[in-house]
Specification:
Number of strands: 6
Strand content: 5-15%
Largest sheet: 4 strands, parallel
Shape: globular
Helix content: 55-70%
């Protein structure tokens, strides 16, 4: 196992490069941008369909009103994804272009959207009461068109970059206002995109007899079916947990490849359910959020509460109780780095196997017991048991699945938990014995000194003073050397300890009133993580500490990928450890916008979220004040 971990760690640069790949990042960020559509539309589905489980059906008129909201949101999610993915891909393309010659992301979004409509929709016409009506068929404008949406976004971004980078545009005189000049600058790349998609659609339909979006689905359908099997599910989510175990954010690597299936299967389940059929698709977004990642990656909900209430180790109990609330809402980084679970050989097997066992059990419930698969999507921060019950439409079998998952996770983790608890207890006992022995020696030394004469006492005192002076000199030398190291390290890599940061901030920012962080007044700090959950922990800790010190420090938390539009409004951007692979890109963006950026380590980040004073000192150090 240690060899396997070492091998994967050796490949970290490669995996980080995959996570940073601009195509995969654009899919992930574009997919995240349309999640509100998927979640909100599911609310209308819940109201419409859940009562059916209990034998109640809305009148047709009411059901049509409810489903209209769903059809006009989820039904066009492909159109929205074509635009959002194009926007994020454009941001990545602009990173390689001069600051004074950037691609207009609005124009790219529009071109991608039009290209998607050309490749995914069929013209329809009919006569109603003698009136001729024409329109577009929306069969592939929803989740079925997601793969086509991604392809359109990439094609559009590549075409735009080709022309903008080479200045193949219509140039206007300097006297023309910038907004008008930009319009003419976009004409050539926009026109090329339109002609390209129109020509490709014409050729494809004449060769195959159907639209490109339908062809993409037919090509990828075997892969989706294979991914929905026991082996495919184990490979997908075993790999996701394995990457996280060695500190690489697994979803960033795996999820872009399956994002289309996660949503299309959700809609497929609903269609089958409404048709009175068994909804058999397993691989869905709510299954990933609430079953595979019950309490976060590694299915850590149960093990966190085991730490909190079953551990004999004081340290384990403290970590478990401090992490319990975030873990309940799917934010388990405090536990992953605090326990730690990441790179902890004892928990390697359960961390990988518990999510696989969870998804296999769910598939058994669907395939063998006849439970319908997930049909409704909820925010990923919904507590897992509630997310399972609601996502499955409150089916009776859902209330059997929840305890089954909790019991199995407990059985998988328990033996390894006991081993770790025993080890930690032994370490704490050894530390306690050493502390008792040290106190006994100090007490004996004091008693001996009391029975000695004044000369001996003076000698002892002189020796103690000399020893203390030597210690102080050594400490001063160590501190001076460390300060020089920190100064040479620069401000973009937070290598300094929290104590050093606090000392630095105290000496440089204290004002006449004695406030050690006065120079932070009016500053703005943005914290970024993968999903916007973990970043809130540090942002809240900073805000609370700032209030206690009477400082006007504005903090915000967001997900990496949706930060570029607001980034120029901040003085410092802090990257959480699970998003560390993006630091080079963030640093490039920061240099372009004049914003300081830094990345944190796992244990360091968790310590900062729990110590407001240290977090303020850390910010002061990064800003060089």
């Amino acid at each position: 196992m240690e060899k396997l971990i070492a091998l994967i760690e050796k490949g970290k640069p490669f995996f980080n490069a995959i996570a940073r790949n601009k195509y995969l990042k654009a899919i992930r960020d574009g997919f995240i941008s349309v999640m509100p559509i998927i979640i909100v539309s599911s609310i209308f589905l819940l109201v419409s369909a859940v009562p059916n489980v209990w034998g109640f059906y809305w009148p047709a008129e009411i059901n049509d009103v409810l489903m209209k909201a769903y059809n006009y949101s989820m039904g066009i999610v492909g159109i929205c994804a074509a635009a959002t993915t194009a926007k994020h891909f454009c941001d990545a393309q602009n990173r390689d272009l001069p600051k004074n010659n950037q691609i207009n992301f609005i124009s790219v979004m529009i071109a991608s959207l039009i290209g998607f409509l050309l490749l995914s929709s069929d013209a329809i016409s009919f006569t109603d009461n003698g009136v001729s009506i024409s329109g577009l068929a929306n069969g592939y404008m929803g989740s079925k068109g997601l793969l086509t949406a991604f392809i359109c976004a990439f094609a559009t971004g590549i075409i735009y970059k080709f022309f903008i980078k080479r200045n193949i545009t219509i140039k206007m005189p300097e006297q023309v206002p910038p907004n008008i000049s930009q319009t003419f600058k976009d004409i050539i790349p926009f026109g090329v995109c339109l002609v390209f998609f129109w020509g490709f659609d014409f050729a494809f339909r004449n060769v195959f007899g159907f639209c490109f979006a339908q062809g993409v689905i037919q090509v990828f359908q075997p892969l989706f079916s294979a991914a929905d099997g026991y082996v495919g599910l184990a490979i997908i989510y075993g790999a996701m947990s394995l990457f996280w175990f060695v500190g690489v954010h697994g979803p960033s690597i795996i999820e872009p490849a399956i994002s289309a299936a996660l949503i299309s299967n959700l809609e497929l389940n609903m269609a089958m359910y409404q048709a009175g059929e068994h909804a058999t698709a397993v691989l869905t977004k709510p299954l990933q959020d609430f079953v595979v990642a019950m309490g976060g990656t590694g299915a850590t909900l149960v093990i966190c509460f085991m730490f909190a209430f079953l551990a004999k180790s004081k340290e384990m109990r403290a970590v478990g109780r401090a992490s319990a609330v975030p873990v309940c809402f799917g934010v388990n980084e405090p536990f992953l780095f605090g326990a730690p679970m990441v790179l902890n050989p004892i928990f390697f097997i359960p961390f990988i196997f518990a999510p696989i066992a969870n998804i296999w059990i769910t598939k058994f419930f669907i395939d063998v017991l006849g439970m319908n698969g997930f049909m409704f999507s909820l925010p990923w921060t919904t507590p897992a048991p509630l997310g399972i019950a609601m996502g499955l439409g409150l089916q009776p079998l859902a209330f059997l699945l929840i305890p089954a998952l909790l019991i199995v996770d407990f059985l998988i983790y328990f033996p390894f938990f006991k081993v770790y608890d025993r080890e930690k207890c032994a370490e704490e006992a050894e530390a306690d014995q050493a502390e008792v022995a040290q106190r006994a020696a100090q007490k004996q030394a004091a008693m001996n000194a009391a029975f000695q004469g004044k000369a001996d006492t003076a000698s002892v005192a002189t020796g103690a003073v000399a020893q203390a002076a030597a210690s102080m000199a050594a400490e001063k030398k160590r501190t001076a050397g460390q300060s020089m190291d920190e100064e040479s390290a620069g401000s973009t890599t937070p290598a300094a300890s929290d104590d050093d940061a606090a000392a630095s901030a105290s000496s440089s920012t204290t004002d006449a009133s004695g406030n050690p962080y006065a120079a932070l007044n009016g500053r703005r700090v943005l914290v970024l993580c993968q999903g916007g959950g973990t970043s809130g922990l540090l942002a809240n800790a900073l805000a609370k500490a700032a209030r206690e010190h009477g400082i006007d420090l504005e903090t915000a938390a967001d997900a990496y990928g949706s930060h570029l539009d607001i980034m120029p409004d901040f003085d410092l951007v802090i990257l959480a450890p699970q998003a560390a692979s993006y630091f080079d890109d963030l640093k490039a963006d920061g240099e372009r916008m004049g914003v300081a950026c830094c990345v944190t380590r796992g244990k360091q980040y968790i310590d900062l979220t729990r110590d407001g004073e240290a977090s303020l000192a850390f910010v002061a150090q990064q800003l060089g004040i």
